[in-house]
Each structure stands twice: as structure tokens, then as C-alpha cells.
Amino acid sequence: MGKRLRVVDVERCVDCLLCAFACARRFGGGGLAKSAIAVRSVGGMERGFVVVVCRACEDPPCLAVCPVEAIRNVEVGVRVDPERCIGCGMCVEACAIGAVQWDKAERKPVICVHCGLCAQFCPHGVLAHEEV
Amino acid sequence: MPGGLHRVLFVDLARHRSWVENREDLFSERLGGAGVAIELLHEHCPESCDPLAPENPIVLAVGPLTSLYPLASKTVAMFKSPHTGNLGESHCGGRSAMALRLAGYGAMVIVGRSPSPVYLSVDADGVRFRDARTLWGMSSSLTAGRVMLEREGGVGHRTVLRIGPAGENLVTYAGVTVETYRHFGRLGMGAVMGSKHLKGIVIAGDGDLPVADHGAYQKTYRDLYTRAVRSPAMRKYYELGTPENLGPLSAMGALPVRNLQATGYGEAPPLEGEALAREHLGRRLACSHCPTACIHLAALREPHPEAPYFYKTTFVSYDYEPLYALGTMLGVERPQDALHLLDAVEHLGLDAMSAGVVLAWATEAFERGLLDVEETGGLHPTWGDAGVYGAMLERIAHRASRLYTLLGKGVDAAATEYGGIDYALSFGRLEMPGYHTGPGAHLTHLTGARHSHLDSAGYSLDQKDMKAGQSRSPEELARALLTEEAYRQVLSSLVVCFFARGLYDADTCVACLSAAEKDRPWDELMALGEDILRRKHTFKVREGFDFDALRIPARALETPTPLGKLSEESLRQAVSEAERLLASGERFSGT
Questions:
Q1: What is the DSSP letter of B180?
Q2: Among chain A residues, CA nearest to B205
Q3: pLDDT tens column, A64-115
Q4: How distant, in Å, are the alpha carbons of A117, B165, B448, B492, B535 from that of B486?
Q5: Residue B314, H or E segment
Q6: Per-residue CA distances from B386 to B65, B119, B246, B268 (Å)
Q7: Distance between CA B321 and CA B452 in Å, rounded?
Q8: Which of the residues A9, A12, A13, A14 would you substitute to probe the B interface, choosing the one with the greatest number of B C-beta atoms within 10 Å?
Q9: Half-sphere exposure for B16 (CA within 13 Å, toward CB)
Q10: Nearest Cα to Cα of residue B24 among B45, B41, B3, B42
């Protein structure tokens, strides 16, 4: 089986966003537009953070709602076919934990591919890339 | 330029208009950050303008490394300072740099005065002017910040800058709070915002940043990251944070205590980093794109003063400088008391350092009979009495009387009126930082472009010389500090956090820039650093700065440093050398 990305200790998250920047670097450059991972505070930074990553659902709602079958199952998680995608955003709505991000410029979803690059750049042991 | 770094966002508060100008010329030559900000200040700050007049611009600038590399996390602000009447410059992290750059701007210039209070909502689409009349006069800057974020909605990557009552009331050392726990603290940017009826700025940005060379970028990034998380140079910031310095400074006799009447507590000082972490550390935070997480929050759990079984837990960010200024400088030795005062300045929106030094002067002036209870409004400032100090901070922020109005203009203004100038601890009208290490420290305070310990870090040079048993001539000292200050201009133009100076050596800066944008040899960057420093100096001279008029507080000369009593003559010689070097075309590093 493949490896899955998992949030293992969110209490150590310091909101440095190195995971999100690492994710965006998959495409070569910097910034955050193409990041598939989101970090948000829990109502004030002093209360800590939530790190939102794709859970690689067995029965993914994002896939189920896609009207043009642009999302398909792979060994771990899903893949988006940008050629097929019509940018309707229904996958974003379908994910209960908000793990489908949105590339505003391209008008396409950004979904984690469980490559584990973010975990390599998490300095505080919040994320792990584990065998499923 | 990549990610729109060359785009400068202009905001005219008087007409509620904004526009973008293309300044590729400026960014390609001056990098960004301090290098660009000083040029924009030269361009937009009218000569001799009143710092609290609408014409005084606020410039915010980021640089070519911002949001691309770890620890390139700071925004540089420049303005004419209402506190010193000269160059105002302050750096801040949090999410500010990331948000501005990823919104697609390299800099922002804010001019004019809004007819009524507003806050700005900024993103890639431009600026919206939001009514802030209801937020004006709120007792806490923190509440105002929360309201702005809630009103703006969305969950993107956002920063929120705002002022508290001190900024609204034009206290000349009012700061700007960013993300609750970071600050454009020094030199009164908060008062400049207040004078513009500008309560806050929310910036949202989550764009792309293309780079020149993908392969080199990945490699340079990985190498830098590995060093950042393994380097001993970052460990002290990582574990205990800046309060780690307090113990060693006390042991060597360089920690200002009770208005610099003493210089430490020997080996067992109060407010020391290890004990604070053990007893109070509640959470740690990082600025965006920084693995170090130097932001330390104390969890202060306190019972309700009257109702039994009601408690509140407040999170207070603590660092060395605020602990020195509102702690040891005031003889406040209980951690809970010091944290209380840190929390108070956060709500009021005051610069913790100037506020502490001002209260220290007032305490000594009160002890010596220059101030009486009639002046203080019935309060008895006494070393260690945090309750009284809290009440005084409140009155300063609200300019509650003639005395508190003067205290709100700094120790020079207060001592000019009431006397006690010999123990009014300021350099270039800016209240002193927490280092009495030797001649290097005070020379930095005297000659640094913004009179900040961070300009050239003489305190660090003193400690190196102490360990090496070395001493320097005044001329050598001046040259060494200007060389350091020029190097820091490169860092603050890229813009890299000064805490990462151990990581961003010459080769690293060149490699980062080359992968992101274009090749620039180190020698060219250092020459630019010196030039940026000279451009700041030119601005200061234009605005009336005079090295000969610098006051060296008698107290700083009387109280011995670990390197002995300071000689005024040697300090003056070093100041003259710095002036000569700045006026000449000579390279500071001598090469």
C-alpha cells in the first residue's frame, strides 16, 4: 500500500506554514496559491490551530459529487484531471472538513496527493507520512 | 518582477482613493524592504513636515526573498517619527510580510488623513475603506483587531495591523500591534496612524510567486531549511526565546535595573528565561515561514478579584526587551506583575520599551521630589509596584493630565520640563534598550540610523570583546559597527529577520537571490548596504539630525559596565568617526 499524510500532534503546530509553502513548491515556485494544506487558528492564535489535510476517504464525497468525473480514486486519496474539470467547485462544498482547496487564478480545486513533502518540512512533528 | 514585487500600492486617506504604481526601477536597484522604503520616504515625505501632519507617509515594504525562503518573514515600516522628529523605522513579522507579498505588492505608501476613522481592507483587487468610527476609542487594540478580522470574513492568509488608545491619542511612542503578539513597536508608527484616523489594516494574500530557477530554488531552500532547524545559531530563539539573554546579562552586570541604578542581580535574577518557561510558558508561535517559533506566550491564570471560583487565563507574549523595560528597569520582579504590565501595553498599544524607561524616569523623579502626588494624580510610583505602574500606563495612553501628556512624549520631553535630565535614559530621543554591556552598545544607540540596539548590535560586539579580552580604539569600534549596520541593510532589504543573521551569510544571500530573481555578487550587495545606510543618514540630516547635539545620559556614564566605566571622550571620538565615515565615500569595511 502507499503512504498517507496524517496530522499526528496538532498541539505542536506554531502556525509557521512551512507545510503549506512546501506543498506549493511541488509546482516549482513559491507562494501559497497551489497549496493543498490549510492551517487555521481555533478562534485566536493563543488557542492553537487546526491543520486541514485530505483524509484519503474510502468513499470520497468530492469524487461522488463531481458532475464530469474529473476526480478519480487512486491508491491513496484522489486525483483531479484538470482537463476535465469545469471549475464548478462542488467538490469544495462536498468535503466536510474543508480539505479541498481552491486555486483562484486557475479556478480549479487543489487536493492533497499524499506525497509527504509537507511532512518533510514540518519542523515540529505535527505531520507524518505513514504507511496506510 | 516575480509576484508583482515592483507594484507599489498607494493609499490617499483624504480622498479615500488608491492606485498602483510600477516601480521596477526602484526594486531592481534597491532590492526591497529598507532599501526601497528609504527611497519612498525621500520621495513622499516633505522636508521638515510635522510627523503628525497628513503629509507624513507610512511606507511598508517587503523584499525579493519574502515568502520564498524560511525566516524571510519581516515587513519594514518607515515614516517620520513623531517621537524623535526624525527617521522612523520599525520591522515586524507575524503574517504581515507574507500577506502583503502574496496580495501582489512589494510596498505600500499611505498618505493623507481620513475625514473620519477608517480601517483598510487590502487584497489583490485593491483597497476598500471601511468605517471604523465604532472601533475608535475602544479600550483594547486586541478587541479592535478581532472585530476587523471578523468583519472581513474569509479564511485566507491574513494579517491585521491596528492601534490602541495610545495611537489614537497621539502618544509619540504608540506602537502598532500585528496578529496580537507582534509589533511595529518603536518610534511611534501608532501615533502616525492615529493622526491619519487610520485604526487598522487587514491584508489578505495567497498568490503565486514564480522563481527564476526552479532547480536552484528547491536546492537552496532545502539547504537553508536544514541549517535553520539544526543550527545552534537558532537554538536560543527556539527554546527559551529572547529571555534566555536575561540571566547572562545579569551575571555579567549589564542588565539595567531600577533606571540603571544597578546592573543586575548576580546569578539568580528574576524574570529569567528558564524559570519563565517552566512556570508560565503556555504556547509558542511562529511568524509565517519561520521554523524557529521564537514567539513565547505565557499563560497567566488569575482568580477574579471578587467572585470566588471565577478565573481568567490570559496569554501574554514575552520577550527580553519588554521584560527588561517593564520588569527589571522598574524593579518589578514577580513574573506575574511583569506579565501584567506587558499585557497592559498590548491593550493600550504602547511601545513597551519606551513606556518602561519613561516610568523608570518618573519613579526616580518622584523619589527625588521633582514630581509630587498632585502631578501624578495621587499615585506614588515606587520600584516594583506594578499596580501603580499599570494605572500610570493607562493615564499616559489617555493623556490624562499635563504630566501624563509629557510622559507620553518620552523622557526627554518630561525631563526638559521637570528636570532630572541626567537620569533620563534616551539616545537620539529614543528610550534605551536593555543593554549596558559597554561602549559598543551605547555607540549603537548613538550612531544607529534609528538609535535601536538592532541597528548594529554593539551589545553583541561588547560581549565578544569581553570574551576575547580585546579592546578597540574608538575609530575601530565605529568602523566595526557601521560595517555591521551596512550588512543589516542588506538583510532588511531582502527582507530577512535579524535573528537569522547567523544563517544568511554572504553565500546564502547570493544563492537565495540568484535562484529567486537574478545574480548579484556579494560585494555589490554590501556596497548597496552601505549606500542604503547613507541614504538614511541623508534623510536624517535633511530633517535636522546633528551628531554633535547627541546627548549621552550622565547615568549611562556613571554606572559601570562590565567593560568598565564609559569615557564620554572616547564615545564622542567614535561618534565623530562614524559621522566622518558616513559623510565620506569610503567603504566602512575598509576593503
A1: T
A2: A32
A3: 999 999 999 999 999 999 999 999 999 999 999 999 999 888 899 999 999 9
A4: 37, 36, 10, 10, 11
A5: strand B311-318
A6: 42, 33, 20, 21
A7: 12
A8: A14
A9: 13
A10: B3
CA–CA separation, B510 and B504 (whole Å): 9
Give span(s): CATH 1.10.569.10, chain B.
234-430
Nearest to B200 by CA among B356, B11, B404, B35: B11
CB-based contact, B67 to chain A, within 8 Å:
yes
Residues of A in contact with B289 (CB under 8 A): 16-18, 21
Contact residues for B432 (Cβ-Cβ < 8 A; gap 6+)? B256, B260, B357, B425, B426, B445, B553, B556
Per-residue cell: B426: 534616551
> What CATH number was assigned to the domain covering residues B234-430?
1.10.569.10
CB-CB contact of B108 with B124 (8 Å): no
CA separation, residue B557 to residues B255, B260, B298, B567, B570 (Å) = 15, 10, 35, 7, 11
pLDDT in tens, B147-190: 999 999 866 689 999 999 999 999 999 999 999 899 999 999 99
| pLDDT above 80 for B462 | yes
What cell numbers appear for B266 in the block?
Answer: 548576580
Interface probe for B, chosen from A18, A126, A127 (most Cβ of B below 10 Å), is: A18
**CATH number of the domain that residue A89 is part of:** 3.30.70.20
Q: Which residues of B touch A105 (CB under 8 A)?
A: 207-208
Joined together, the cell numbers standing for residue B422 give: 541626567
CATH classification number, B2-204, choose in 3.60.9.10, 3.30.360.10, 3.20.20.380, 3.30.460.10: 3.60.9.10
Kindly state the cell numbers that stand for B162. Answer: 491596528
Of the candidates B3, B155, B221, which has its C-beta nearest A31's C-beta?
B3
pLDDT band, very low/low/confident/very high, at B233 (cuts 50, 70, 90): confident
A56 within domain boundaries: yes
Residue in A closest to B228 by C-alpha: A123
Q: What is the pLDDT of residues B120-145, one digit of tens each?
A: 999 999 999 999 999 999 999 999 99
In this structure, what C-alpha cell is assigned to residue B260? 540603571
C-alpha cell of B510? 547570493
The reply to whether A28 falls in a domain is yes
Q: How many C-beta neighbours within 10 Å does residue A26 have?
A: 15
SS3 helix, strand, coil % of chain B, rounded to 5?
45, 15, 35
Other C-beta atoms closer than 10 Å to the C-beta of B151 total: 14
Q: What is the pLDDT of residue B149?
A: 92
Q: Is the pLDDT of residue B591 over 60?
A: no
> Is B460 exposed, middle or buried, given 0-12, 13-18 or 19+ CB atoms closer than 10 A?
middle
- Contact criterion met (CB < 8 Å) for B288 and A29: no
Contact B59, B77 (CB under 8 A): yes
* CB within 8 Å of chain A, chain B residues 299-338: 315
